[in-house]
User: Fold this.
Amino acid sequence: MWIIAKYILKNVSIKPVRSLLIIFCITICAIAAMVTLDMSKSVGEIMKQFMGNFGGSGEFIVTGSKEQLEFLEDASFPKSKMLQVMSYGDAFYSRIDGEYSFVKEHEIMLVGADMNQAAEFQIVSSANHLTSDQTIITKNFADQFLLKKGEKVHFHDVDGELHEFTIKDIENNAKELFGDQYALLSPEGMNELGIYDENVLVLLDVLDDKDIKSVKNLLEQRSKMISYQYLYDDELIEGETEQIKQIFSLILAICLLMVIFVTISVSNRIMCERMTVIGTFYSLGISKAKTLISVLSEMVFYGLCGGTIGVALYMSLRNTILEGAMQNIVEPGMQLMLPDIKIGSGLLVVLTACVIVCVCSIKPVLENCNVSIRDIIFNTKDTKYELRRARLICGSILFVLCVCCFIFQKDILVWIISFLGMGISMSLLYPYFIICIGKMLSTFYEKRGKYVSALAITEGYTKKNSVGTAVLIGTCTMLCFALFFISMGVVKSVDKDPGFDCDVQVSVEYGSKTDFEYLERQKDVSMVEYVYMFHDTVNVNGEECMLGVFCAPKSKEEWKGIRYFNDVAMPVNENEIVITKKLARRFDLKVGDHVTMEFLADMYLPVILNMKVSAISDNLDTEDFVISDDLYNRIYPENTLEYVNVFTKNPNEILDMILKYSASYICGDDTNTKESAIAKNKREAKNIVVILSVIMILGVVITFVGSSSNQMIAFESRKREFAMLLSSVMTRTQLAKTLVLETMYSTGIVMIIGYMASFLLVYPISRMLEEYNSSIILDIKTPLVVILMLVLWVVFSFLSIVPIRSMKKMNIAEEIKCE
Assistant:
């Protein structure tokens, strides 16, 4: 046993660069695996914290009249804690710098609740007794209006009269349920303003999580009289978290492909080196079974080291990785209290890493362990590459299965598995393409008397080491071009497209047309458009969902500022709808189909209509639709503004004016000039391209180091052949030229094949992105493709330096003395 351990340590240390390469590959894959495994468990906890920041410890928000909510206190209702909240939207005014005739109006939410119960629900940091003339305001409220503890503020009652309140405290732990600027009052203080509890909002905290399902059912039974929301079941949040999981699963799949192919290629070369070790074991009387175990133990060592390092690195960087992955969901600066990761997850990843490297190595290990002692001693094992029928059959079947999954399946997990299968199938089929093309090129050069080129190509497709290196390079090329096409598609999709054609687009949060009519009177403004949309709970063919309902323009010319539906005819007839492709895909709708739609499905008086799909738009990747102007005004008489599109010669000045006079009505982050929106999109596209480029460069580096190792080992098995050529028909210069041509030809062939195979990987990736509202435009630019092809070709052609340097140091007489 000591002899086996001694040889393992010696074999690992004899080629440190190669050992570090394998360990590095497995480490990267282990980190990706840990992220993917941890994400499925931690995201739920993170989202609970996020929603806790939204509504405290409450799980349900229930609204209705006092009489309608009496059933919550019934003995039959599952045990729960309740916080009754009264709310009232008040106008709060502040001065505008440099203006004496105008003030800025802000909407402030007044919230009335029992402070002791509010503290239990974590709405306030600590219990505070409030008198009828005291209030607690949020920190954002205090910061914006420069208010301090002990100062006086004035709020309007229902009749518009002002009442004075003293600021007792400033709350730092504001809950997004009421916005970021609100004031807390006692129930008595709300009564002073004439606000009573006829219509109330109740936060519900179910004491036993097992009762949540039954609570949902009870609330659903009364959904026509009351409205409710389960905070931890928000559709948008679930979609975003699922997207994060699948993105990391895709990265894991790419990393796994790299590990598989590098390990298979390197293990083949390692086994060629280990022939003397195997012969030594045989000569000492060690059985083939023990020899097999000892050789595989080396691979287990690599898996154990790489897996352990990967798990340890992930554990140390866990907070940073998860916070980066969740940055689009959690609030800025929010401290995540991550759940403890189970030791079993880390052990599973390490064990899986060991299994993967053993599975990748088992074939070459078995082949080498069955070599006779005579062949081991005299090194007469045939190094010629031979095609096997099983390889062709397995590769073809796997290829067909993956194509069928891409076409007929919509499950993202199946696509990721098929993505892996496609990469493996192409690696199995690569040698057939290499040999077929190599034979044709070899014949071509022989007929023209270019025997050096013919010999170089022949060596490239007949030697095991050369074919193995070519397969590794081809797989890397396939992945690089797939990621390159995705990168270019992302840039094409968002780089120059701000999503609107006007000079300034205002995203309206509150307010009506009259609040923005002053823009029409500005001399530099040529036109102002008003786009109406309502986010409604709509029941579509029996399925309830939150959708965006656009009010169609009376003519197509009215929607010049947005191009969401400009690929379909406008206006829309009263009994017709225009839907987006995502909505059509969700409900399997086609042009001409009739659909039953229940508008205001969560209200007392829903509107049920039978609508006809008149057109499907490809210009918007959301679940929205358009109805006629008359129908929209009947269903939503409040005419909710979504966008104000401004056409002007001085967009920056108009934007400054909007931010100055209409700040309380708009969503500032989404109000931009066309130029600033383009710049923002470019930054986002750049971030995505940087991530994909890092993965590409990582793959090229790993492949280059792995291929260099292959070349070093290949030289050991071919140096006797080189010595014979140098002693008989070739000079060192001619042999060096042959080696360069061999590398260039074999690399060029597999890169062309890899380029064509990359399209097979782009399709499933684009389908995955499309499922998450991230459709990409595959605009393949030939000059960029040629440049990338040349760069990769030059990089991998440098692999010929390895055997050339070794050949120059070779002692010819020593190598041929036994011939």
